[in-house]
Input
Amino acid sequence: MAPRKVTVKVLTVNKPAKQIVDFFSDVKNMEIGGAIKSVTKGDDDWWNFDHIIAGKGRMKVVQVRDFGILDHE
Output
């Protein structure tokens, strides 16, 4: 596979981990960054949205609050 260009973004926040996990657990808050819009939560815990480059998408937030872990599918 040939190398490809990627963009890496880093966000440094001076807040408690619980507050950050709570904020990003609500995918609707990610509209603030501008890459996704029209975010709605489905009945199946998947979030539906429009991505400015990739088009329509779905995301499910996975978290382990005790360890401050937040990821997505």
User: Anything to note?
Assistant: Residues 39 and 49 are 4 Å apart (CA to CA). Helices lie at 17-25. The chain has one helix and five strands. The longest strand covers residues 36-41.
